[in-house]
Structures are given as structure tokens and as C-alpha cells.
Amino acid sequence: MSELRHDFPVQSTKDIYQGRVLALRVDEVVMPGGHVAVREVFEHPGAVAIAALDAEDRLMMLHQYRHPVRRRLWELPAGLLDVAGEEPVETARRELAEEAGIAAAQWSVLLDMVASPGFSDEAVRVYLARGITEVGRPELGDDEEADLVTRWVPLPAAVRMALSGALVNAVAVAGVLAAHAVAGAPSAARPVDVPWPDRPTRFAGRAR
Fold first, then answer.
1. Is the pTM of this model over 0.85?
2. Which listed residue (28, 86, 122, 145) is catalytic?
């Protein structure tokens, strides 16, 4: 089979909406056959999530309300890359302290994910964090975070949550299963400074 090398040039683009955490644009893209197709794209600032494991291999999980699905979900600590100039691992450190009240001494990259590449450039880097210490959780304001609950969940129980459907957040499911996969092989995780080619940049560029 011959390798296809069409580069899908964008013939035109139109901004539809820009909000606090996403933007919507419409691109007209030249397809391999020469016709032009319309593609709607949600731009996203990118995000990080943290699979934090304590000395007993318990995973820090959060129970948090998510309005689009109208219910509380079990998730990993996570946050948007919405601070200009902040490295992703520093965002992860900050979010882990703010949401869970803990810090970690050892950090590595567990996963890089593109959540919905059919219509969004959202990408998430999931870190593995070990060497946990308590630092205390600050006041979380009066939005959804004020209702946030934290819990240490044994890793095998978290895996069962993923497989039973009790855990449906895509990043959390992937992070739990990956953490389980590398639990016996910690060298499988990558250094925190490995390149992240899919990290979104267009939404952040709008704010400059």
C-alpha cells in the first residue's frame, strides 16, 4: 500500500466564538480528492492530570460535579494550562496542592492524550507522582470546587471502578489503567521534560 502524503491545507478559517476555556472556529480544508470540506474545531488551552500514588499504592481521586453531564464524577486531580509561561509540570504541582492538598517528590510522564481529535485540539498530559506529603488544601472558593471531595483509593479498586463503569472520565480511566500497568515497572514512565508535540498553542495565542 502506498503511503498517503496529502497535507490537508486550510483554504480559509473563521472564528465563531471565544470563551474563557475554549474557542470555536470553522476551517475549510482541502481534501485529497481536491474538494473542500468544512471542519468545526474547538480550540482548548490544554490540560494536565496527576496519578498520585502514596506509599501504599493508593491513588488520590476526586469526586466533583461536572455541569455538562449534570452529575458528580470520580476524577484525577487536573487543571488547565491557563497560566502564561508556566511549564506543564509546574501546573500539575500547583493543581495537586490546590485540589488535593498534597505534594510529590518524584514526577514522571505517564501518558499524553488527545481527547477528541475529531473536533478538538484538546491534549492532556498525565503525570505519575510519587513520594507524597501532605501540604494542606486551601479554600476552594464557592464554585464547583467548594463541593469537591478527595479520597485515597487502592489502585486495584480504581481499576475495578474503570472496568465496571463507575469511573467514566476519559482521562481518569486512562490514567488509572496506565498507573496500574507501570506499577511494577516504574522505569516505563518518561522524564517530565520529554517533548509534547500535541500540546495546543492556538487558544493560548489568542490571549496574547
1. yes
2. 145
